[in-house]
Design brief:
Length: 262
């Protein structure tokens, strides 16, 4: 390895680290320029300084922090319920051919129903307050988890079962030591997708059901009062939380799968 190659390696590593921020920086520069040079109406597109000032006011008073905590509380509760139910049902369908024959067709039909089509029914059953919102989030998190878990178990190579028979594994040992570790990638894919769906459903429930504390409620407030700085701030907060969710899911999935292969 040459000296030039060794010198270029830190530069490549730095470029790889900063590359994801290039698009963000470009958007920010275009935003600044459009406001600075009057390319857009400031009544519809506030300046970054105005959004930053609104953020300082909101977080100083604690209003937005409370709304974020309420949205996260609903999101985590609904996702935990939906993902747990999806994981258990997916494993049952994967390991039981009888359950697959009886429940599988109904589940596949259930999957074809648009997510927001459940809003009227769930609001009639649970109301538009917290219970209805959490139920909607649970439905959103349930669908990808159950399907991916089910397909993950069914997709295990037959050689795994044959090897377990040769080693005289009991059914429980086969599930614990062979099937579940082999299904983990599919399960994590479902959990990752369920996390994203649940976060989208959190915002949707706050926008379309009764207005309660939450980021969606603040977006409604900004729209009705024509407070564009609040609208832009809410959208930025949603993007940051979604990015943190996605990054955390990828980090956890990578660590757990790496530990499984040791």
């Amino acid at each position: 390895m040459t000296v030039d190659t060794l010198r270029a390696r830190p530069l490549r590593n730095a470029a790889r680290y900063w590359r994801p921020f290039t698009a963000f920086g470009t958007v920010l520069l275009l935003w600044l320029a459009s406001v600075r040079f009057g390319w857009v109406d400031p009544h519809f597109v506030p300046s970054p300084a105005a959004v930053a000032a609104r953020a300082r006011t909101e977080f100083t008073t604690g209003t937005l922090a409370f709304d974020i905590s309420e949205s996260l509380r609903r999101n985590i509760t609904g996702f935990a319920i939906g993902a747990s139910a999806g994981l258990l049902l997916g494993l049952w369908l994967g390991f039981s051919s009888t359950a697959e024959r009886i429940v599988g067709p109904s589940l596949l039909a259930f999957r074809q129903i648009a997510l927001f089509a459940w809003v009227p029914l769930l609001s009639a059953w649970f109301g538009g307050a917290d219970a209805g919102k959490i139920a909607f989030i649970a439905v959103a998190g349930f669908q990808p988890v159950v399907i991916n878990t089910w397909q993950g178990v069914k997709g295990l190579p037959s050689a795994y079962r044959e090897l377990a028979d040769v080693l005289i594994f009991s059914r429980i040992d086969y599930v614990r030591f062979v099937a579940l570790p082999g299904t983990l990638p599919a399960i994590f894919t479902g959990l990752h997708a369920g996390l994203i769906y649940a976060w989208l459903a959190t915002l949707g429930s706050e926008l379309f059901l009764n207005v309660t504390p939450g980021i969606g409620g603040r977006l409604n407030e900004g729209s009705q009062l024509f407070e564009m700085d609040l609208l832009f701030l809410g959208i930025i907060v949603l993007a940051v939380i979604g990015l943190l969710y996605n990054s955390s899911a990828v980090w956890m999935e990578t660590r757990l799968l790496r530990r499984r292969t040791r």
